[in-house]
Structure to design on (264 residues):
């Protein structure tokens, strides 16, 4: 017989702690960053984004992380198919419990990193423990 | 004594697609559905063959260094967060993947070497967080 549990909130037996998801873990924050980095068309557990300069952005958590030792991934969308300065990247500059600072840019023909604003969009996903 | 709840389906009462769970630090709650990965896939770079996946119906080898996966259940919009990691040894040595396709039904990458040329990766891993349709 199929069982369905209807519930709004799940906590541990004491009512205050987390429950284990068997062999699963949920992301604690994610964001889709628009071109230029000035806005978040969609996100989870990020309250805002700061434009800190060319190719520099700060994403602020709604609910803080428990430490700065979490895992963060970033990927950029880039539609150019060839040509110079074609290697575009999103980097994690720093992490804290309240925010994550990311950079976008490219490497030039000499292999030097050049800061550059997000041209199309970028994605960030965070895994770890909430405070 | 630890308690284990065995159930096949969880549904929110107030909102069917929204259930809160307590965070690890016991001081806040987080939305269960928003945190769940909605799509993941491990494919081969040479032919886009799916090694393992979740919520993926098919994959396509679009060309050298270019692959696309198609979702079984679509995303609600194209504002989700999509991640790509790839393994490879392009020449010049710098090698990376970027998002090429990001839509409600498909996600795809370009694997590029340091000269900006498409290069087949050995393995490509995708993960997507966002809202299902």
């Amino acid at each position: 017989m199929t069982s369905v549990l209807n519930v709004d909130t799940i906590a541990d037996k004491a009512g205050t702690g987390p429950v284990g998801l068997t062999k699963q873990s949920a992301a604690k924050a994610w964001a889709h960053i628009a071109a230029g980095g000035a806005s978040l068309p969609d996100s989870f557990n990020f309250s805002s984004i700061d434009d800190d300069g060319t190719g520099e952005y700060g994403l602020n958590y709604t609910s803080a992380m428990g430490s700065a030792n979490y895992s963060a991934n970033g990927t950029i969308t880039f539609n150019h198919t060839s040509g110079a300065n074609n290697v575009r990247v999103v980097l994690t500059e720093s992490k804290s419990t309240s925010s994550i600072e990311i950079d976008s840019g490219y490497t030039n023909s000499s292999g030097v990193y050049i800061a550059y604003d997000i041209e199309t969009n970028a994605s960030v996903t965070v895994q770890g423990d909430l405070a | 004594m630890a308690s284990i709840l065995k159930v096949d389906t969880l549904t929110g009462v107030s909102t069917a697609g929204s259930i809160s769970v307590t965070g690890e630090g016991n001081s806040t709650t987080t939305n269960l559905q928003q945190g769940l990965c909605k799509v993941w896939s491990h494919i081969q770079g040479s032919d886009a063959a799916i090694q393992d996946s979740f919520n993926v119906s098919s994959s396509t080898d679009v060309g050298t260094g270019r692959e696309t996966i198609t979702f079984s259940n679509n995303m609600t919009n194209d504002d989700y967060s999509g991640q790509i990691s790839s393994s490879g040894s392009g020449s010049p040595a710098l090698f990376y993947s970027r998002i090429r396709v990001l839509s409600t039904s498909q996600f795809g990458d370009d694997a590029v070497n340091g000269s900006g040329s498409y290069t087949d990766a050995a393995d490509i891993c995708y993960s997507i967080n966002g809202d299902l349709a």
In short: Chain A touches chain B through 55 residues (CB under 8 Å). The two ends of chain A are 38 Å apart (CA to CA).
